[in-house]
Amino acid sequence: AKDEGRGRHRFFSRSIHEASLARQLLQAELRRALDQRQFSLVYQPKVNLWTRQVLGVEALLRWTRPDGRPISPLEFIPLAEASGLIVPLGAWVLETACQQSRAWAQASGEELAVSVNISAVQFTDPGFVDMVERCLRNTGLPPRLLELELTESMLITDIARVQQTLRALQALEVCVSIDDFGTGYSSLSYLQNFPVQTLKIDRSFLKTVPDDPQASAVVEAVIALGRSLNLGVIAEGVETTEQARCLLNLGCAAMQGYLFGRPMAAPELLAWVQEWHR
Ligand code: C2E
Ligand code: CA
Ligand code: CA
Ligand code: CA
């Protein structure tokens, strides 16, 4: 029994070691990937079902390794955050997304607002606001066409500092939305004092709508909150017509999800928009 115990211990420590080795390898690969242009962006449309408007697109990062294997952002973003690579990578994402919005406008006259996900590490980087400003200047994108998606949890860590950063972004006239709303520690009082424009209802609540009355209640509450604070509300992860109908009944017409369009490469996205208007 004693031997077995020791064996097990050895087994565990080796597998922990292997896991951390795998992580280190992936991290090294990630660093190379930025130089070797293995990253790309896809874009998912956001629509308003009442007005039939296309509200804009969300830029989502993709990593395809040289062997053709795609790695999910859920896997590599945390690694990029841990290594600090998210700062240059995030700057690349922002610049590329802004350039793309400009390129669409120039090619088709279609002004598509673009939303970019910002990680906490990026947001707290002292150079963040300057980076956003430089990006707008370099690409010539009108700031109202840029939206930054922040998550709730990153807003409540150092409130004074967060408020300062948000005010600086407000001065640049870019929009800010709170992503995955409802999943964090919704301290509602902070919302009043933060210059944000939109609440994005997390996909997890949509999953069980309309069957689960509790999930529906959360969705309803966020919509009511948005209305009383004069904030826009959008639902993400809309997959079925039942969910869309339910959201419309609750008073939320802004939606994003596979029901309307999957994340697409830039040329497909433009074709999608033109098809939507037809
Ligand atoms: P997120 O910001 O909440 O993005 C929404 C995710 O839901 C995306 O996954 C999108 O492809 C997926 N999605 C959209 N509609 C539907 C739907 O109807 N059904 C289902 N099941 N899923 C839907 P994706 O692209 O794998 O991204 C995962 C997460 O990775 C994002 O969650 C975001 O947190 C992060 N991420 C992606 N791109 C970036 C980036 O450029 N920077 C940072 N910091 N994070 C990013
Ligand atoms: Ca997002
Ligand atoms: Ca989200
Ligand atoms: Ca999410």
TrEMBL record:
Stretches assigned to the EAL domain: 23-277
Transmembrane segments: none
Protein name: EAL domain-containing protein
Organism of this sequence: Deinococcus arboris
Lineage: Bacteria, Thermotogati, Deinococcota, Deinococci, Deinococcales
Stretch of the intact protein here: 659 to 936 of 944
